[in-house]
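ok new one. same drill as before - structure tokens go in, u give me an amino acid for every spot. 226 of them this time. try not to just spam alanines like last time pls lmao
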């Protein structure tokens, strides 16, 4: 692997870890804010940290002409887009089913959990609802794919030296950091599929597209059954 890329991955992951703990430190502060400011911080602060943790090191290490290659910005053909959208429609029911099963099991064993996203999405007339849609469709697919599918995988792959184990480990971290026990099994599956799309198409556009479609389907289903 290119030495500069390896340094970039290491610094980005270090920044990502720092950002995660920083988010935890600020959580009591922005949780105490009035609405909608509290939920705006909840939806966007971590995503901003993900972007800053990767974009700042990249700007420091690479030349401008190198950035498209570093961030795997490669156009996806129309036929490839159709395939990715098809994969999203196949993947979504599996992720949804896993969340329903996990929720039932947790209730059966009296395991309590807080589902903040469901609270935010509960009122389709509130400004929080529209912020959640914007964050889920436009921000998260870009920020999280750069953070997890590019930086974290680029960091773990040379260490683990096994593609499947690297994909599973980064997907498990991706799911766990969402801090939503009900969705962890499904998010691990989603993370695995997103990472293999990244590997197959050698472009962040592919997993970002599937991620966005998945979130759109999630919002639609939530509003139908809420």
């Amino acid at each position: 692997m290119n030495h500069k890329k390896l340094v970039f991955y290491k610094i980005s992951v270090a920044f990502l870890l720092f950002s995660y703990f920083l988010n935890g430190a600020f959580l009591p502060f922005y949780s105490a804010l009035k609405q909608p400011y509290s939920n705006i911080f909840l939806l966007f602060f971590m995503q901003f940290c993900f972007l800053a943790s990767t974009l700042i090191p990249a700007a420091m290490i690479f030349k401008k002409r190198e950035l498209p290659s570093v961030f795997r910005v490669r156009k996806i053909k129309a036929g490839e887009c159709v395939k990715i959208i098809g994969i999203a429609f196949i993947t979504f029911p599996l992720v949804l089913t896993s969340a329903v099963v996990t929720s039932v099991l947790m209730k059966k064993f009296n395991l309590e959990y807080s589902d903040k996203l469901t609270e935010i999405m509960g009122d389709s007339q509130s400004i929080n609802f529209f912020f959640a849609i914007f964050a889920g469709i436009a921000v998260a697919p870009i920020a999280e794919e750069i953070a997890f599918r590019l930086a974290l995988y680029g960091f773990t792959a040379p260490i683990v030296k096994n593609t499947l184990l690297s994909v599973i480990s980064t997907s498990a971290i991706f799911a766990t950091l969402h801090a939503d026990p009900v969705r962890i099994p499904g998010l691990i599956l989603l993370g695995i599929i997103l990472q293999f799309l990244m590997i197959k198409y050698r472009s962040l556009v592919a997993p970002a597209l599937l991620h966005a479609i998945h979130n759109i389907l999630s919002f639609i289903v939530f509003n139908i059954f809420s």
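The chain has nine helices and no strands. and btw The mean pLDDT is 89.
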